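I'm curious: can you give me some protein's one-letter sequence along with its backbone structure tokens because I've never seen that pairing?
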Amino acid sequence: MKLRVEHITHYQYDSPIRYALQQVKLTPKERPGQQLIHEWTVAIEGGTQQLHYTDHHGNGVDLVSVDSGTSELVIRCTGEVELITWDGVIGPHRGAMPLWTFLRPTR
């Protein structure tokens, strides 16, 4: 399945901002069953992308500074993702929780 994603996050502030930094996690991960087909773009109005990095969980993170004097920040993300479904199974378990926890009965 191919998905074309267009996501907009819109912030409006009561008064102009003097200074702000924000971590934005809006970039999908490439992993077994999910791959980016077209480049993922993050466009920012009212701010500046300072850097992009991968956090300790493998998430793409953009550090955004809000322009001094702005009262609106708009972040637009676009791209295309290809998915192969395995009904929720995405690969080996790498978490700290023991697998037997998932075998316990629930209500």
User: Anything to note?
Assistant: The CA atoms of residues 31 and 40 lie 15 Å apart.
